């Protein structure tokens, strides 16, 4: 859990580190980080929750007549970004929750919603929902005008030692920058695809990890540009190559004890873990809409690239949706492998936790683990095992989401309405678009 800074400590750092601007960040329905930036002359207002903004222009927020919103900074997210601006001086960053002018938490703020669901977890008797994300991304070269291209800085593969290319140097600087602002980076390496990278930071409670996910993206994009590169978290940026995943490692704690661990259980999993797992599996199709929220996401969820396609679980097998990594007591966890980094982390964790808590309440055991390669099974064999497919398009995922009252409750009425509206509009625009592939295939028909 992050250090809780006091107002006095923040004031001192602003003075000692020559902070000139304060960046107040929050996240919209699509997982895009937004910010209001103010000069440090407004520090008193920042620290007393008195910075307002117009929420009517933010996706999924409010109508024009309800536009005034207030930012409540979380002091535990304070950091001084280790780069300045063109005028000199540093930028201080705080992640904020969004409130109404009467002080009530805004129901359309994804961060507030996750805090609400974490409150339900505590009412159910648990202390923390610990999360470790495995973040994958691609680096591409910029052109002479500073625009992205699809030209990669390397053609390396999984765990290759690419010490002399710009991608490796960029990845190292991203790691160093993350460590400067308080991350504990556990590993960094080249991934399977050309120009594809992975950086893993230490697991922590759900809210802290969701915040760090947003910070990670900001840092990666900033450092990449310093190297003449573009960092993208798009799920499938290159046809025929591996896509970017965001594996979600989940565990539940009570009285500092990992309740997913049982030394005598199969795979060292407790019944609580198995009940939680069943909740995830039963609601996986609806969760997919949140964990894979773009049209492009479903071009990653196809056979042949290690991304899951079917709803099942296993220990060593990497083809199912959920894997149980070999680990000791503190690290025993469920690894959901379907989500990609375009997901809004606050919504994804709220949905997973809600499904898992429902599973614990119902106390149903999951299907048997599947250790065979699911991709090599026939359709009949998958049916015999009770293995169902994940949605294959955003359209089908949204249909599953709309039919799942539990996962809709994980987002609440406001966010559910905004999410469905946003994704149906995205699908409609995609359905109306005409691609080069279509022209090349059908123009002579």
TrEMBL record:
GS catalytic domain boundaries: 110-445
Residues the entry annotates as binding L-glutamate: 300, 306, 318, 337
SUPFAM superfamilies named in the record: Glutamine synthetase, N-terminal domain, Glutamine synthetase/guanido kinase
Cellular compartments annotated: Cytoplasm
InterPro entries with a match to the protein in the record: Gln_synt_N, Gln_synt_N_sf, Gln_synth/guanido_kin_cat_dom, Gln_synth_cat_dom, Gln_synth_gly_rich_site, Gln_synth_I, Gln_synth_N_conserv_site
Positions that bind Mg(2+): 134, 136, 191, 198, 247, 335
Reactions catalysed, as given in the entry: L-glutamate + NH4(+) + ATP = L-glutamine + ADP + phosphate + H(+)
E.C. number: 6.3.1.2
Entry-linked Pfam families: Gln-synt_C, Gln-synt_N
EC class of the enzyme, as a word: ligase
GO molecular function: ATP binding; glutamine synthetase activity; metal ion binding
Family recorded in the similarity comment: Belongs to the glutamine synthetase family.
Record's protein name: Glutamine synthetase
Native source species: Lactobacillus amylovorus subsp. animalium
């Amino acid at each position: 859990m992050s250090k809780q800074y006091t107002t006095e400590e923040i004031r001192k750092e602003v003075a000692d580190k020559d902070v000139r601007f304060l960046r107040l960040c929050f996240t919209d329905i699509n997982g895009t980080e937004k910010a209001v930036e103010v000069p440090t002359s407004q520090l008193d207002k920042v620290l007393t929750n008195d910075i307002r903004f117009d929420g009517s222009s933010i996706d999924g927020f409010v109508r024009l007549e309800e536009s005034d919103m207030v930012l409540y900074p979380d002091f535990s997210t304070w950091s001084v970004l280790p780069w300045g601006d063109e005028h000199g001086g540093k930028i201080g960053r705080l992640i904020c929750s969004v409130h109404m002018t009467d002080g009530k938490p805004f129901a359309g703020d994804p961060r507030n919603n996750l805090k609400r669901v974490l409150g339900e977890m505590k009412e159910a008797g648990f202390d923390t929902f610990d999360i470790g994300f495995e973040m994958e991304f691609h680096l591409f070269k910029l052109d002479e005008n500073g625009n992205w291209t699809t030209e990669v800085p390397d053609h390396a593969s999984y765990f290759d030692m690419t010490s002399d290319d710009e991608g490796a140097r960029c990845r190292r600087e991203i790691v160093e920058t993350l460590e400067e602002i308080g991350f504990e980076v556990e590993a960094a390496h080249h991934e399977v695809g050309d120009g594809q990278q992975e950086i893993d930071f230490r697991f922590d409670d759900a809210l802290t990890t969701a915040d760090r996910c947003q910070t990670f993206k900001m840092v990666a994009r900033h450092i990449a540009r310093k190297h003449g590169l573009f960092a993208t978290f798009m799920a499938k940026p290159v046809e025929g190559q591996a896509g970017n995943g965001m594996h979600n490692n989940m565990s539940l704690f009570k009285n500092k004890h990992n309740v997913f661990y049982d030394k005598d259980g199969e795979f060292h999993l407790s019944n609580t873990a198995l009940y939680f797992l069943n909740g995830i599996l039963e609601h996986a199709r609806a969760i997919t809409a949140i964990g894979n929220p773009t049209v492009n996401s479903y071009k990653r969820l196809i056979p042949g690239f290690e991304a899951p396609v079917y709803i099942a679980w296993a220990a060593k097998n990497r083809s199912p949706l959920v894997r149980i990594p070999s680990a000791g007591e503190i690290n025993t966890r469920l690894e959901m492998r379907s989500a990609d980094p375009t997901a809004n982390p606050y919504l994804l964790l709220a949905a997973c936790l809600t499904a898992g808590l429902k599973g614990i309440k119902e106390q149903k055991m999951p299907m048997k683990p599947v250790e065979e390669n699911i991709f090599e099974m026939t359709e009949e064999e998958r049916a015999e095992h009770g293995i169902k497919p994940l949605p294959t398009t955003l359209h089908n995922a949204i249909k599953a989401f709309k039919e799942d009252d539990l996962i809709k409750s994980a987002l609440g009425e406001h966010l559910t309405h905004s999410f469905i509206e946003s994704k149906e509009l995205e699908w409609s625009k995609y359905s109306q678009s005409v691609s080069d592939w279509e022209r090349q295939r059908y123009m002579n028909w």
